[in-house]
Amino acid sequence: MIVVTGATGNTGGELLRLLSATGVRVRALSRRPHEGPPLPGVEWMIADLGRADDLASSFAGAERLFLVTGNVDNLVRAQKNAIAAARDAGVRHVVKVSALGASDHSKSVIGLWHFIVETELKRSGLDWTILRPHVFMQNVLAQRDAIRSEHVVRSPAGDAAVPMIDTRDIAAVAAAALTEPGHAGKSYTLTGPAPIGWHEVAEILSDVLGVPIRYVPESEDDAWHRLHREGLPAWLIGAQLALAEYQRQGGGTGIVTDTVERVTGRAPRSFRDFALDHAAAFAPGSGPTT
Description:
Blueprint: E1 2-4, H1 10-22, E2 26-30, E3 42-46, H2 56-59, E4 64-67, H3 75-89, E5 93-97, H4 109-122, E6 127-133, H5 144-149, E7 152-155, E8 161-162, H6 167-179, E9 186-190, E10 196-197, H7 198-209, E11 214-217, H8 220-229, H9 234-249, H10 259-264, H11 271-277, H12 279-282
Parallel strand pairs: 1-2, 1-4, 2-3, 4-5, 5-6, 6-9, 7-11
Antiparallel strand pairs: 8-10
Helix pairs in contact: 1-6, 3-4, 7-11, 8-9
């Protein structure tokens, strides 16, 4: 049996669909399991990784664990709790979603936190596979209201071009690592097929939607105030601005890997693929987000 955390998220939800289609037994964990779709072979269970005392039953009988959480302020504690509970339950292999550039000297607290958890996992005695994906294409969905009403996308990344990845491709790599041999002890950097800048994002959205979409580069100050108005906490805004600075500097943030294709046998989706699949979410007149 495979335990999947973050089961109602983009990556976890897609992973559930892939695993269900193969007939693997899955236990899907979420604080809101009622939001999860019914799928063959998938047992939904309420769980909060931040509460270590409640996790024993969540991991009982499992052999493998998919570990992912959102960017939350208790990320380190929650993921360490999951690793400890998995070890105590006899789980043999953990596949963890980390972050590109996770290190002990990252200027982004997200990179630092993931490095801390990676280190804990490697010391746990469990088999492990670490996935380090680049920027998610799905992050653009956070701007769908502005795309619908103002016909703009915004970013403090300037003219940087990075190989964004569709979370569905992250899930496909995770499914392989969880169900096939040969992935233990490996760290995979996951990217899309090519670097893409925000001007190109706007051009592709314009073409797909049939409406001119503009890219509006932001200063760090403008981005801070926009993200603050959207309700992001200060620590997460700071982390995102640090990532944007890395992207403006170029270097390693523009490197493309062939890992998705090597592991899954299929090329990763392009941003155009993503935009076509999500056109209804971006289309003007489709209503406000909820």
